[in-house]
Amino acid sequence: MKGCIPLQKKIYVALVHYPVLNRNSEVIASALTNFDLHDLARLVCTYDLPCCYIVTPLQDQQCLAQKLIAHWVERIGKDLHPQRSQALKRLKLVHEVKDAVADIEGETGAPPQLWATTARSMDGTIGWGRARDMVKEDEHSILLLLGTGWGLAKELMDEVHGILEPIAGANGYNHLSVRCAAAIMLDRLAGMER
């Protein structure tokens, strides 16, 4: 009987708020959203991934995320919705992607492979079947970088080990929320084999 394959402990997620692009292709730090934090926490918990890093150097955004997480993990939200508390415990705040890399290396003994995601078509992207095989075959963990705003900045894209192919829809429309895209990606990488 086929079930969830043992990939979950190898895949980490980072929701990157800096460096990302705005609609004019300028590098910015984007704002956190309540929906992203809740839904990505629930997603990594559903697939039993170790954690989701929330990457932002902005102090006010980190304070906002800390308050939200504390409400659900330590305060009244924990008693009202224990399942939400269980999920939000998997969020970790970091200033930069390199902080997430260092955290994973400290946990696993080796730095992860960095995989970028994009909605843009590019040459040399990794197809989903190959990506899943790579996760199975390689002993390295993977840090999946999810861009906010209008996508990851070039400076970050230049540092990655691979870029996953965009999610193709049925009619050419390609503007999924980061939460929807992450759910599809994680199901393709760590979900039940079909």
**What is the typical, i.e. mean, pLDDT?**
91
Order of H and E elements: EEEHEHHHEHEHEHEH
Content-based structural category:
alpha/beta
Number of domain units: 1
User: Helix tally?
Assistant: 8
Percent helix range: 40-55%
How would you characterize the overall build of this protein?
With 194 residues, the protein is α/β, with parallel strands linked by helices. The protein is built from 8 helices and 8 strands, in the order βββαβαααβαβαβαβα. Strand 2 (20-21) and strand 3 (27-28) form a beta hairpin. Helix 1 (34-46) packs across helix 4 (82-88) and helix 1 (34-46) packs parallel to helix 8. The protein is globular. The relative contact order is 0.22.
Key traits:
194 residues; six-stranded parallel sheet; alpha/beta; disordered N terminus; globular; Alpha/beta knot; 15% strand; 8 helices; two-stranded antiparallel ribbon
Task: Give the SSE layout.
Elements: E1 11-16, E2 20-21, E3 27-28, H1 34-46, E4 52-55, H2 59-73, H3 76-80, H4 82-88, E5 91-94, H5 97-108, E6 113-116, H6 128-137, E7 142-147, H7 154-157, E8 162-163, H8 178-190
Parallel strand pairs: 1-4, 1-7, 4-5, 6-7, 6-8
Antiparallel strand pairs: 2-3
Quick rundown:
With 194 residues, this protein is α/β, with parallel strands linked by helices. It has helices at 34-46, 59-73, 76-80, 82-88, 97-108, 128-137, 154-157, 178-190, and strands at 11-16, 20-21, 27-28, 52-55, 91-94, 113-116, 142-147, 162-163.
